[in-house]
Design goal:
The protein is of the alpha+beta class. It is built from 13 helices and twelve strands. The chain has a four-stranded antiparallel β-sheet with strand order 5-6-9-10. The chain has a two-stranded antiparallel sheet with strand order 1-2. The site of alpha-D-glucopyranose has 8 residues, from helix 1.
């Protein structure tokens, strides 16, 4: 499926070959930032390191001088697939030329380069890509760490990669509940306003239409700063210390500002007021993946929330929002991440649990994904009660299952 969804060509504008994988040919035709990273996790699990490198090099081919890389790269398909995509780029007179969006997505990319290096020990590739990664992570620090505390701010719900995540309802002015057209207009108006302000971050921060420090993006930022430090170490780059210290600082700030001991959960917070948004989605568990996260926090999260009734318990866990949340809707919907089970969440939480020795719970997530794929194929998301597949078809992320099978080495060959 990954090979069938691969697109290669020559870009005259950027004077480069390009190669990327469409997450789903009909529904998602571009190169997307975090999708590319997920593809690399799958490709490296399948020993396809050459293709993985080409995907990463293409991802950085349009990097701006200041380090920025957008979340959608249009390559040979410059016209937006959806009219709403139009607001996710800066206004430009050259709409028909290949370009990229003005949004970010969770920065998984240093880990992907680490994966490629672990599988190839290719120093030349690392030397070529590390300066670009450094520029990218330094851009994030300069532009998205608004308060200098280490936590990243996002300026659109779509920057979380979990587009209609119910946490954002109150931020965009939608009364928390099952999604409807009003939510659509509220969220699109965030992007439209950002567009009108030409994605000038100073203006956006001043206007404060949508500024959230989101748990998943920040967790991934912390993980990837540590990965940056490891990559720098390999090449003897002294910036290793700077990235390692920063990763630690992000984790400390997450504990201080996002963690609530009483409910044992990490919550998204408003950037300006630091107010917690108490909506239970799988991301309340994500910071567990950070290796230095204190054990007692990890235990509290797992004891309280993993598969607890009324929250994440379901025949096919993990639902993308707690089943007792007013926004929960298990069926197909254009409003993504508001109920169904996504392979991504299981893959992420699997790692949280596996590396903390909660093997039994981790295994349940892995078996769930295997069952879902066997029963309903490679779909974008699945009904947590019936296992029915919905959304995009031939959806590449489901391939993360091969990475889950590889993690403990043994079960990839399990004939069951
Ligand atoms: C959906 C997902 C987003 C992803 C995109 C392409 O919008 O929510 O995370 O990047 O599709 O697959």
């Amino acid at each position: 499926m990954l090979l069938a969804n691969t697109h290669e060509g020559w870009s005259a504008r950027f004077q480069t070959d390009y190669c990327y994988i469409q997450p789903s040919p009909g529904t998602y035709p571009y190169q997307y930032f975090w999708d590319t990273c997920l593809h690399v996790f799958i490709l490296t699990a399948l020993d396809e390191h050459g293709l993985a490198m080409k995907n990463i090099l293409s991802l950085f081919a349009m990097q701006e001088d200041d380090g920025f890389v957008g979340h959608m790269l249009f390559w040979s398909r410059p016209l937006p697939a959806k009219w709403t995509d139009f607001f996710q780029g800066k206004p430009s007179r050259s709409l028909l030329r290949p370009h990229m969006s003005a949004l970010i997505q969770p920065p998984l990319v240093a880990q992907t380069v680490q994966r490629i290096y672990d599988g190839t020990h290719d120093q030349e590739f690392l030397k070529a890509i590390l300066p670009k990664l450094k520029k990218y992570f330094d851009w994030l620090e300069r532009n998205r760490d608004v308060d200098g505390d280490g936590l990243l701010s996002i300026v659109s719900p779509f920057e979380s990669g979990m587009d209609w995540k119910p946490t954002f309802d109150q931020v965009v002015g939608f009364e928390h509940g099952v999604a409807n057209r009003w939510l659509f207009w509220r969220v699109v108006s965030v992007d439209a306003r950002n567009f009108l302000h030409r994605y000038n971050l100073d203006t956006l921060y001043r206007k404060n239409h949508f500024r959230v420090k989101e748990v998943a993006s920040t967790t991934i930022y912390a993980q990837n700063l540590t990965a940056m430090a490891d990559l720098c170490d390999i090449l003897g780059d002294p910036d290793a210390t700077r990235y390692r210290d920063r990763g630690r600082k992000v984790m400390d700030a997450m504990i201080e500002q996002m963690y609530e001991a009483e409910s044992a959960a990490f919550y998204d917070i408003y950037t300006r007021s630091k107010r917690k948004i108490r909506v239970v989605t799988p991301t309340i568990l994500f910071p567990l993946v950070i290796r230095d996260m204190p054990r007692e926090i990890g235990d509290a999260l797992v004891d309280r929330h993993v598969f607890s009734d009324g929250e994440f318990a379901a025949p096919y866990p993990i639902p993308s929002v707690a089943t007792n949340d007013p926004s929960f809707d298990p069926g197909p919907s254009e409003y993504l991440w508001r109920g169904p089970t996504w392979v991504f969440s299981n893959w992420f939480v699997y790692q949280c649990l596996y590396y903390r020795d909660y093997h039994e719970q981790a295994e349940l997530l892995r078996q769930t994904i295997l069952k879902l794929i066997r029963q309903s194929g490679f779909r974008e998301y699945y009904d947590p009660f019936t296992g029915e597949g919905y959304g995009a078809r031939d959806f590449t992320w489901s391939g993360l299952v091969v990475d889950m099978l590889n993690i403990d080495g043994g079960s990839a060959n399990d004939p069951s």
